[in-house]
Amino acid sequence: MFSKKNQLTNITRLSLITFLILSSIISFNSCEKHTHDITTTFEPATSRTALDHAYACEEILGPLPKFSCSDAIEVPSTQNGVPVTFPSGEEGSGSTNPNDCDHPWAFGMACQTGNKVGRYQGLNIDGTENPDVVFITFCRDGGLGVIGYKYSTGETCFFSIQDNANPNNPPKPGDSEYNDAWMNPSIVAADKCVNCHMASPFIHSPAVDQLKNPQDTSELLVPFTGNAPYIVIGAEFQQPYTTNIQNSCTSCHRPQCTQHFENYPLDELVMPPPFENATEFDHSTISNADRQAIRNWCNTLNL
Questions:
Q1: CA distance 46 to 235
Q2: I want to staple 22 with a disulfide (CB 3.0 to 4.6 A). Which of 165, 185, 200, 256 is the partner?
Q3: What is the domain range of residue 46?
Q4: pLDDT tens-digit readout, 137-185
Q5: What's the structural domain count of the chain?
């Protein structure tokens, strides 16, 4: 969730328990369980500015790049391989019917046009690239959201520009207008980022995973983090929920509990992405008791 524009309102469906396929370390031969190294302590702070948050993140992730939606790649929307367009509505341009496109989104309208995703390599203080850090941008309806992630420690930062800011030329930390263009961390955190970004900082869906990394087309644009550590920077933010349940589900997946993923059977996907023939693979008869144990745990969270 990158901004309030991206959240659903008036969700009426029952909670759908999803298990996102979010691992570059998952192989066809084995699924290794790692410790989810986070704290669940949550003491919200509300007085920090956007610049305060940016500087705190830079201490861990390094200098923030110059983000811009003009650098991002538009996510294709096709039906039977043919590009499609949709009329504009209150939530943007799209369709609520997953059958109207080949690669549905996880939440919001199932089929959407005009969304863009970008990727930036982390930077060292001297300007050289830092392969231990990655930033992913998401651009939708004039908004810009950013997630920064450090692979070695799992430390993660969420950012979002103000609704009236320029997504193609937002200021960098240190610029005089930074606090005017970027949301305070308390506002970003109010979107309850980890309710959707629970299993990993990055959400994978058939739509997003059409995109390849231009610097290495053998990998997807949005990286996998798998069962690596995952910690959110900033006292304003709730830490990701985690469970000690160990069964056939959690041996490969971190549980993802939310009612937002209502467009596509994301818990029925064959591993790993990019989800070819996803709907032809049925988990429904596999580990039913283990799946129910995850559902029961999710219900205790009252999300």
A1: 9
A2: 200
A3: 36-242
A4: 999 989 999 999 999 999 999 999 999 999 999 999 999 999 999 999 9
A5: 1
